[in-house]
């Protein structure tokens, strides 16, 4: 009996080795991705210990004094904490509410196009803004919105109105930031949804048409259910980066007049960590930011599973 079990294990191991040998090139293709995550994602995680130390460059990582939760206490009792939390949450909510649904809607509209040439041309045009840097985007925003010859203000004046200082206004800051993201990323965000839509069985639409279903009923009962799991997974992943608004975009649009509503965790980490050298303190701020993302992902994933979706894990 033991001999039979040992023989079975040996046979199973041999079969796995043969399978690995057959698929060796596929596994080899995984190596760059694994190295990327190890070098840029997992190894830097050791840096979170800076949040619990009073890091001094001349003492080094291991020589710096352990201070426990001192930096977290300082951050949570700082008057700027609630101010930063409010600003970051407001801009993140704008992005989630106004940006997230748009790639879905655009993908649905592109999926309805029957002319393949026009469809490919439209896809190419809406993908282009994704490849512009935020420096270019902020420059275009300045050209369009400045009071000194900006196109938008010229149109307002031509319509009989008065110039609006969009770039200096607290009221317009979040709208401008959200509009930039929508223009830059909506087209690129359609890729995964279009891929999901391409997997829908055309016979389902034919059967629905034979039953008398119009375009709206086909959309509601075939198309949307087909991409529902993709929407849920991308929403969960999006929540994981809820507070990560991107330093560059916000920083380029900040000025003395709109800083009160524009200062976020990302810009706060830069000004205090890089410019002032408070490495341990800003590591604690960044760790708090990541912890919030983790909580949101776990919560959203749990809710999704309770509603019968797969989730991300």
Automatic annotation (TrEMBL):
Name by which UniProt lists this protein: Protein lplB
Keyword Membrane: yes
One protein family per Pfam: BPD_transp_1
Primary subcellular site in the record, as a coarse category: membrane
Similarity field: Belongs to the binding-protein-dependent transport system permease family.
Transmembrane regions: 25-43, 91-113, 125-145, 187-205, 226-243, 278-298
Keyword field: Membrane, Transmembrane, Transmembrane helix, Transport
Membrane topology, record value: Multi-pass membrane protein
Stored SUPFAM superfamilies: MetI-like (SSF161098)
Native organism taxonomy: Bacteria, Bacillati, Bacillota, Bacilli, Bacillales
GO process annotations (BP): transmembrane transport
Highest taxon listed in the record's lineage: Bacteria
Record has Lyase as a keyword: no
Gene Ontology CC: plasma membrane
ABC transmembrane type-1 domain sequence ranges: 85-300
Location of the protein in the cell: Cell membrane; Membrane
